[in-house]
Design a protein that fits this description.
Layout lengths: L1 E6 L14 E8 L3 E2 L3 H10 L3 E7 L5 H10 L8 E5 L7 H14 L5 E6 H6 L10 E4 L16 E5 L5 E5 L4 H8 L24
Parallel strand pairs: 1-2, 2-4, 4-5, 5-6, 6-7, 7-8
Antiparallel strand pairs: 1-9, 2-3, 8-9
Amino acid sequence: MLHGIDVSSYNSANYSTSGLDFVFVKVTEGTSYTNPKWVVQRDRARRAGLVVGYYHYLSPGSMRAQGDYFLDRIALRAGDVLALDWEHPDVWGGDKDRWLAHVKAEAPGHRVVLYCNRDFWFNRDTTDNCGDGLWIADPDRPAGNPGVQHPWTFHQYSWAGGLDRNVARFDTRAQLRAWAGAPATDDEPGDDDTGDVPAGDCGE
């Protein structure tokens, strides 16, 4: 498994990258909030050679407008991962499905995944649609062993110390890059990208 964190404005822009393979950065919320630290938080991950993901916190309102607001603020590179943070109590399964579909249509070359906790996945979701992968929050289970039977791609297993820690269901960073659509590089000697890549895609 690979290790990573997710950060927002509550976290430092100078977080440690030691031992990490990927970082998800909060960019937007609704249609009016942008994380003031997202650029420097993203740049820190890039300088360390980590896989970069961006996420949007979904609020009630227009799903299309929120997807556009999110995408308009990002200069996407090949291999960047996009994520929907679904945890607002007034946002329902049909809303997240519309957001996922719109963002995937606007950024078809990028993986679009769903972040949610077990309560939302079991009790609010009705379609099993998590786009290109499920990012499940379950801090009550050991890293890499979340309490879901559905194939998962990322597991947020700890919130300790105010830092969200995650694992990804890949053996090597090269496998994660290949899944994300990044161009092949030679900067990770010995990092074999030919192994099995987990199936984490979700149904429509």
